[in-house]
Amino acid sequence: MSASSLYTYNVIIGKLKEFADNHALIRKFTHGQISQADLEKEDEFPFMHVVPTQFSIDAGQLTYSLDVFFADLPRDKDVKIEYQRHAISDCILLFADLVNEIENGQIFDESVVITKPITFTPFIEEFSNVLTGVNGTIEITVDYEWNACDIPFIGE
Question: Rounded to two decimals, what is the model's pTM?
């Protein structure tokens, strides 16, 4: 079994959380439906949130499609338009940091491929807490072996 065959969904999310935890500017990592991450107003912003969207298996590869959000929350004392401009700019850089770390083999090994180009979209005043930031889909492809020997099958 190749090393990248060990990149299960749990491992992928764990590695993305590790990236967020080690990034000096990201204050929180969440996973699942975006509405769940946005329920409580906390001072832990900007944050990174990952939503699984689709998985596919093809000859020799398994692809994880994930929507990734980087968002910040307005501060009451900030001028709204200025805040939004700065938040979007900062979140673009956070998204780029993630892509760079994946592409340069810092999060996963060199066998993991990220599909390019990657398009991400700004959002302003979205979700229940009026968040501002960017989101986009990242496709992470790992080696996949059609190995029936790994199936925990009981019986003949």
Answer: 0.85
